[in-house]
């Protein structure tokens, strides 16, 4: 969990950044002016500063320049946000800003920018401990997990898996920290976070999403809505569990090429929205109906 100072005179934008960044496990400190930010920085050293160019008392570029002239704060990365010209970006980087974001800020651009910057510092956990290798991080993750049998029980139910992720987040292992472990492990985006946690925490084999999907398909060949299930599993293989949830994935050209006919026809076929949501839940249960056998066991 990183501490991020957000400096902007617009309360709505500060709130937006707070919501987006705290969702990934970070602690957000807000400042509505440069003076307020400097007051905070006299006593604190955040992990990252995000500052708007336009402030009521001192422009953001000048604030960055002041921050970078303080020895204690010189290495703190800064992201400048503005709706201005490319010249502003050049000026911001000249005075020491690591990145520049143009308004309107998207969730994807914000998270990617913050993730890249913080990854250079390693994984930041509560207490300001910084982990820079998978070997350092794995024991810390294990200490935040339940015993293996309890983890197996939690694994097999969607709500309990989500509760597990919330518990890890409360212990400092937010989405960004877990994604950093994924990157260090070399698993890439082919593996679910649940499989990665099982692998690092208990030595379970690291199954790819494609392997889970194939095993699930083999059990669904006689399902009355196998065509829908197969398409949803294809989406899961390509993009993960969350990508299966939006209803509009049934309206993509690929879905129509598979003969599904769009969301209206799919809902009519399965018996309505409630039945479709139940189908999604059932499919996810099928995906995680079995846990891998730990390495070394038969």
UniProtKB/TrEMBL annotation:
<dbReference type="InterPro" id="IPR013670">
    <property type="entry name" value="EcoEI_R_C_dom"/>
</dbReference>
<dbReference type="GO" id="GO:0003677">
    <property type="term" value="F:DNA binding"/>
</dbReference>
<dbReference type="InterPro" id="IPR050595">
    <property type="entry name" value="Bact_response_regulator"/>
</dbReference>
<dbReference type="GO" id="GO:0003824">
    <property type="term" value="F:catalytic activity"/>
</dbReference>
<protein>
    <submittedName>
        <fullName>Response regulator receiver protein</fullName>
    </submittedName>
</protein>
<feature type="domain" description="Response regulatory">
    <location>
        <begin position="3"/>
        <end position="118"/>
    </location>
</feature>
<keyword id="KW-0597">Phosphoprotein</keyword>
<dbReference type="InterPro" id="IPR001789">
    <property type="entry name" value="Sig_transdc_resp-reg_receiver"/>
</dbReference>
<dbReference type="GO" id="GO:0000160">
    <property type="term" value="P:phosphorelay signal transduction system"/>
</dbReference>
<dbReference type="Pfam" id="PF00072">
    <property type="entry name" value="Response_reg"/>
</dbReference>
<dbReference type="Pfam" id="PF08463">
    <property type="entry name" value="EcoEI_R_C"/>
</dbReference>
<dbReference type="InterPro" id="IPR011006">
    <property type="entry name" value="CheY-like_superfamily"/>
</dbReference>
<feature type="modified residue" description="4-aspartylphosphate">
    <location>
        <position position="52"/>
    </location>
</feature>
<dbReference type="GO" id="GO:0006304">
    <property type="term" value="P:DNA modification"/>
</dbReference>
């Amino acid at each position: 969990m990183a501490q991020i100072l957000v400096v902007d005179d617009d309360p709505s934008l500060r709130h937006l950044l707070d919501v987006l960044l705290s969702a990934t496990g970070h602690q957000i400190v807000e400042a509505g002016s440069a003076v307020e930010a400097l007051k905070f920085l006299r006593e604190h050293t955040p992990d990252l500063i995000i500052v708007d160019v336009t402030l009521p008392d001192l422009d953001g570029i000048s604030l960055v320049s002041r921050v970078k002239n303080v020895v204690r704060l010189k290495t703190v990365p800064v992201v400048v946000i503005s709706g201005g010209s490319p010249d502003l970006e050049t000026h911001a980087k000249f005075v020491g800003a690591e990145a520049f974001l143009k308004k309107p800020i998207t969730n994807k651009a914000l998270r990617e920018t913050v993730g890249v910057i913080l990854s250079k510092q390693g994984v930041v956990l509560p207490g300001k401990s910084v982990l820079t290798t998978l070997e350092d991080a794995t024991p810390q993750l294990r200490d935040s997990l339940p015993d293996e049998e309890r983890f197996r029980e939690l694994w097999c139910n969607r709500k309990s898996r989500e509760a597990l992720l919330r518990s890890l987040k409360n212990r400092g292992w937010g989405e960004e920290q877990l994604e950093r472990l994924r990157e260090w492990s070399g698993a890439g985006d082919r593996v679910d976070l649940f499989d990665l946690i099982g692998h690092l925490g208990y030595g379970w084999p690291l199954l790819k999403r494609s392997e889970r999907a194939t095993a699930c398909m083999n059990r669904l060949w006689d399902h009355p809505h196998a065509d829908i299930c197969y398409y949803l599993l294809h989406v899961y293989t390509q993009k993960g569990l969350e990508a299966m949830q939006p209803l509009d994935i049934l309206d993509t050209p690929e879905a129509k090429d598979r003969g599904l006919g769009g969301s209206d026809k799919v809902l009519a076929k399965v018996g309505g929205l409630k039945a479709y949501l139940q189908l999604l839940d059932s499919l996810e249960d099928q995906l995680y109906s079995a846990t891998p056998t730990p390495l070394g066991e038969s």
